[in-house]
Amino acid sequence: IAAATFATGARPSHRSLVLRHGHAPTEVRVVDVIRLPVREFAFGFEPRVLVAVRGERRTEAELPALLADAFSLTNVEATIAVRLAQGEAREAIAAERDVSVETVRSHIKKIFAKLDVRREAELAARLRQLS
Description:
The chain has helices at residues 2-5, 62-71, 75-85, 90-97, 101-115, 120-130; strands spanning 14-20, 28-35, 49-54. The protein is built from six helices and three strands, in the order αβββααααα. By secondary structure, it is α+β, with helices and mostly antiparallel strands. α3 crosses α5 (101-115).
């Protein structure tokens, strides 16, 4: 946790630890420690890391909520991020949401900025770390 909290660099730091239960070696828990982006004018009182403990893969429904919490995404941004990472076309996302493709592009720009990624492949990789 300290390594993620005090890590330097522009990108949020992410570390995963694999823990095996002593009595049941097949039972595995993964502890994800994610350094959260620093907010301007927070005066040092904002959360620094998100610690998530998981034993099984997250359901598709759980991932948007985790993204929203971890990276301060809106619910719409989190949902679009998940769908984009799954390979859905921007046009399909726009059609299902009944908005223009430009609106979806605007959301994607915000998502990329908040997650500090530049490409959809980077977004997909970041989401795989959390799933």
